[in-house]
């Protein structure tokens, strides 16, 4: 509610910090930022929101920041009754913001009669930094990080770096830095060789400053899974992250998908369902949950999940890609062509060939070759197109190129991707599989 709209990142950051505080409490299930921010400035009522998120209680409020003062108004509302359970107004100096967040979390614990361990209470009272300028830059970094674009992630890194310059002991800023560097190669923006060493250093520094920071263990697990291919160590880090931050949806999400990609479908789906319960409107968790069903050949369930995810966010192309591949595996070739064509995926060639449209399939391969970039995402897409027209040698050569670039997500799921079934008896593909413990 500040007159300066540039302060919007500060309000969003306060929201995220209060979520993080409450998420430390093991006996509460707290919905993640991704899902709740969809209701920012919404006209929906409390009961409708509660029903959509499957929660019993909602914390709503406002933030007003002016120079070195901050005013936070918050109220806890019961979903069933639509009545206030507790309300408070905090009008303090900016330097008291952490005390406010801690007080809000502890008051909610008391009002909801939730038991809390001494260690959790101690973590609630911990002040992450005494430098308010460093804190504002950290919030700005989180604002940019949540955009998940190349520009957003690089601006997040800049903000986290500036925050660390002001407070070299700010563990959360290092954790944010690690999460930013981890995701840049995932989306094909940077090469792993450039980003991963920086991600690892930042995560280890965060844990050196705060050994109980679950977010940093989540990043380490991702590094060891996607880039190091050290799966036993990745599992240990993911489990430690969940132990420290049981409400951290990303930890459950990445661990669940890790298990699925290693072929442990039952355990992986359990973790992904937990992640979805904590972040029910997250399009990427919906997509990866549907992926897991697809990998496990539960095609009807996978198709339904992809469709539900698309209802949440029709613009998220990854969901359309997954739905198209599920259609393909189910033999629904017309639907696969429509969906994969809209998503620009190379797998469309297999559906075209299945319907006897070989010339169209080869034409699509030529189009991909002419517009191809040198990043691993384009290379793997071309590999899928080659495989669709039966060019196994060409597909494997492209997969090897992607492997040399350290392609994180496609190569980690090589063990379970049904689209590769026609390659599994090929010695060249078996050699590639061996690198992934498959």
Quick overview:
This protein has 438 residues and is mainly alpha-helical. The protein has helices at 8-23, 33-36, 46-53, 97-111, 118-125, 132-145, 150-166, 171-186, 192-209, 214-228, 231-244, 249-261, 265-278, 283-295, 299-312, 317-329, 333-343, 348-354, 358-370, 376-388, 392-404, 409-412, 427-434; strands at 57-66, 69-78, 84-93.
Q: Provide the structure class.
A: mainly alpha
Mind telling me the CATH class of the domain at 5-127?
A: Alpha Beta
Backbone CA Rg: 23 Å
The percentage helix is: 55-70%
The general outline is: globular
Q: How is the main sheet built? A: 3 strands, antiparallel
- CATH architecture grouping of the domain at 5-127: 3-Layer(aba) Sandwich
Number of strand elements? 3
Strand order across the biggest sheet? 1-2-3
Please, how many helices?
23
> What proportion of the residues form beta strands (DSSP E)?
5-15%
Mean pLDDT equals 91
CATH fold group of the domain at 5-127:
Rossmann fold
Give a topology summary.
Elements: H1 8-23, H2 33-36, H3 46-53, E1 57-66, E2 69-78, E3 84-93, H4 97-111, H5 118-125, H6 132-145, H7 150-166, H8 171-186, H9 192-209, H10 214-228, H11 231-244, H12 249-261, H13 265-278, H14 283-295, H15 299-312, H16 317-329, H17 333-343, H18 348-354, H19 358-370, H20 376-388, H21 392-404, H22 409-412, H23 427-434
Antiparallel strand pairs: 1-2, 2-3
